[in-house]
Known about the structure:
The structure holds 2 protein chains of 2 kinds.
Chain A: E1 2-11, E2 14-24, E3 29-33, H1 40-48, E4 53-62, E5 65-66, H2 72-77, E6 80-83, E7 90-94, H3 95-109, H4 117-128, E8 141-142, H5 148-162, E9 166-170, H6 178-191, E10 197-201, H7 206-210, E11 215-220, E12 223-228, H8 230-239, H9 242-251, H10 253-257
Parallel strand pairs in A: 3-10, 3-11, 6-9, 9-10
Antiparallel strand pairs in A: 1-2, 1-4, 4-5, 7-8, 11-12
Chain B: H1 2-23, H2 29-45, H3 61-64, E1 69-70, H4 81-84, E2 94-99, E3 102-103, E4 118-121, H5 122-127, H6 131-138, H7 148-155, E5 161-165, E6 175-181, E7 188-190, E8 193-198, E9 203-212, E10 219-228, E11 233-241, E12 247-256, E13 261-268, E14 273-282, E15 288-297, E16 302-311, E17 317-326, E18 331-340, E19 348-357, E20 363-372, E21 378-386, H8 390-397, H9 403-421, H10 425-435, H11 439-442
Amino acid sequence: xxxxxxxxxxxxxxxxxxxxxxxxxxxxxxxxxxxxxxxxxxxxxxxxxxxxxxxxxxxxxxxxxxxxxxxxxxxxxxxxxxxxxxxxxxxxxxxxxxxxxxxxxxxxxxxxxxxxxxxxxxxxxxxxxxxxxxxxxxxxxxxxxxxxxxxxxxxxxxxxxxxxxxxxxxxxxxxxxxxxxxxxxxxxxxxxxxxxxxxxxxxxxxxxxxxxxxxxxxxxxxxxxxxxxxxxxxxxxxxxxxxxxxxxxxxxxxxxxx
Amino acid sequence: xxxxxxxxxxxxxxxxxxxxxxxxxxxxxxxxxxxxxxxxxxxxxxxxxxxxxxxxxxxxxxxxxxxxxxxxxxxxxxxxxxxxxxxxxxxxxxxxxxxxxxxxxxxxxxxxxxxxxxxxxxxxxxxxxxxxxxxxxxxxxxxxxxxxxxxxxxxxxxxxxxxxxxxxxxxxxxxxxxxxxxxxxxxxxxxxxxxxxxxxxxxxxxxxxxxxxxxxxxxxxxxxxxxxxxxxxxxxxxxxxxxxxxxxxxxxxxxxxxxxxxxxxxxxxxxxxxxxxxxxxxxxxxxxxxxxxxxxxxxxxxxxxxxxxxxxxxxxxxxxxxxxxxxxxxxxxxxxxxxxxxxxxxxxxxxxxxxxxxxxxxxxxxxxxxxxxxxxxxxxxxxxxxxxxxxxxxxxxxxxxxxxxxxxxxxxxxxxxxxxxxxxxxxxxxxxxxxxxxxxxxxxx
Lengths: 258, 445
């Protein structure tokens, strides 16, 4: 479904990704871990098409098509979803209005009839249960005055409504207390199925206790330096990132000097 | 320059003399005298120039040079009910319609009003029992500082709208006053005048609308006066969507009695050049006003709002929120002054002007001002100028919204506070259709 080949990207003139290669297949959950500043969030933003991030070389294929030549909205309608690390507040636009608009844009793209307000209300009510979202939050402005946990739940609610083929969750666990983490994780698990794929970007192993990945990759200095199964995350939890760093510096001295 | 101005003044003088002669027998003498005094004032001061501080950002030279001529009495434009239907607020059950300043009884509706409530054109009122009301309010000593536009309006005071609410009258359906500009043989200068008198404990909603039937040039110079009695409530919408070739100069003055409430919302969509002056006098305890507005302008448009909220009595409250959306090569001016006199203790005055620039070529000059001479007051003011936030845009497009839709949605979000304040559906819809690409319907939930 997703094939990233030797991807290089920069932001504000600074090279962040220095040759990322990753293949994600339908039905798989991949976790991208790594120390701060390793390029995890950059990878997430590049996949979503954030205009501040410039791809300097490499390619990304999504369902066999060149993802990088699509505008961010085309990527979204095509089934790519990014759950933001810091969800944006949109004053004056209610959550329900925004969700219906986004949902109907996707329906139109698929050649389906738009849902009217009543039909959408039913759908929203059902999906909101997935993340135990309070109905009161639907009539409030998007993310405005939401707690950290509510914002993250709102991201997963959007995922539940838009049903992407590929969901990239950027540090969805950050800033969550244990209850919110459980609700968000259970929500993601309910949305996980054989036809979609999920890429979890996270600094901590904690999230992976709840959303168990099929593969774990460690990103360091803009490259994937190690891949493994879920046991790799446990090893990181136990030993920290230092041993990975040391290993990476030894095997790739050029990265160390860069 | 001087010669041009003189010529302009004399062309108004010629039309004025003709009008005075024509009206000499049919209009009251006090009115003829009032007009003569006003004409003299106009000839003395002329149209304001950018040398005057209050007009620094708004050049009215195009009006001076515009060869506009007052519409002659009896000049009729063929317009039927079908032609004006699009400009009517369906919520209103009574209305007065003026075409190029001329009252059109056949397009108006003044039935269905509660006992004692008057909604009438001036000519009818001058001839009838309400002449004394007009005289009492129109013939008051005028402000010696009145500018050239206001003076010219008074000089050509002939047709207009009177809304009179006797004590305790409650008019539930809105009253619409529609001023239409239509193509005329000459480039028309029209001088709408509105007088609203709400006696104590009365309440009504007024929709004051300005529109053009086509894209032709016109010059509207309006003066609206609102008197809100003790415990009375006047809700006032001013919707200006004249053609983008039009010039629109308007003044709204309101005076509030004890515990009177005045709620003004202005919507500025049209005109090549528009200027709205607002003066609200809170001279009696417990009065409260809202002076809110939204201006939305695009390439070639200039919209200027100048307001003065004058607190001269204790325990009065004023709220002011003006929002501007500027697209293309447009320009707007906001100058809002809140003046709190020494005796106006316990004043609560909030003022805010927020602007959204959708293009790099748009320009806003904003100047919120507080002048406070009392020491126990709660006052705040502020102004902001911003553009659409890139991160907000990206968030929306990352959910599959096309860029145009995302921009529209953020623009809508910016205006929402004011759109939601409007309780008249047809005004909401006009805003929606004019600017938000019918987004409102798609946002229904």
